[in-house]
Amino acid sequence: MSRRASGLKAWVVQRATAIYLALFGVYLTFHFALDAPADHADLVSWTTTPWVAVSLLLFIPAMLAHAWVGIRDVFMDYIKPIGLRVTALTLMAFVLLASGLWAMQAIIVARIA
Amino acid sequence: MTTKRPVFLEIWRVKLPIPGIVSILHRLSGVLMVLSIPVFTALFAQALSGPDGFAAAAAFVGHPLIKLTLLLLGWALLHHLFAGIRYLIIDFGWGVDLPTARMTAWTALSAALLVTIVGGGMLL
């Protein structure tokens, strides 16, 4: 894929994920602000509700993709030395990937348990 | 790449128009939220791990300094959301003219601050 097309792909990914993040993110914010789980059992029963679990498992990669496109733009704008830029991008990729896998694992384990 | 173009970087003398302020805050709020991702992940995994983990996560979130940070992140989320909706609308070609762009920029900026203050006041 050409450089132009890869930029277009990132542009589309950013907007498609934005819509899902906005909708489910508003629900998450309201849920935790107004009806926060009172204890562990409460949190597990919310998390393992099938539609919540599926929505969360979709929310995580959507957020990671959105965060990645955004932070990549920021790094490319402000970090000019190429070695430093690649290092920062690599570190960020690991942090985001590790966070996403950890969160998804926590949801799946809660559903099995 | 070296260029001979003039560079003006006296940052305190650069006066951003209101859509520029909304834009840089959209970026800043995004970076803040990216930095919070590993923290929220750890909290979520800990709270799900068992009753003790849940209590530890709840105690952490209840700390006054953390509550203040959550308020800041709440503003970041709201600003990013409202400014983001504004950009999606602009993508469709609506509100591109300067008076409308200025008006919607003010709206997004104020709405985020207003909802943060009202919501924060009700919750904290």
Describe it.
Chain A is mainly α. Chain A has a single domain, classed as 3 helical TM bundles of succinate and fumarate reductases, CATH 1.20.1300.10. Chain A is 89% helix and 0% strand. In chain A, helix 3 runs antiparallel to helix 4. The mean pLDDT of chain A is 92. By secondary structure, chain B is mainly alpha-helical. Chain B has one domain: 3 helical TM bundles of succinate and fumarate reductases (Up-down Bundle), CATH 1.20.1300. Chain B is 79% helix and 0% strand. Chain B is built from 4 helices and no strands. In chain B, helix 1 runs antiparallel to helix 2 and helix 1 crosses helix 3. The model of chain B has no long low-confidence stretch (mean pLDDT 92).
Oligomer state of the chains in this structure: heterodimer
Give the low-pLDDT segments of chain A: none
Query: In the CATH hierarchy, what is the architecture of chain B at level 2?
Result: Up-down Bundle
Distance between the termini of chain A: 43 Å
Order of helices and strands of chain A: HHHH
Q: What structural class do the secondary elements of chain A suggest?
A: mainly alpha
The structural class of chain B is mainly alpha
List the topology elements:
The complex is a heterodimer of chains A (113) and B (124).
Chain A: H1 3-34, H2 40-48, H3 50-78, H4 82-112
Helix pairs in contact in A: 1-3, 3-4
Chain B: H1 18-49, H2 51-62, H3 64-91, H4 98-123
Helix pairs in contact in B: 1-2, 1-3, 3-4
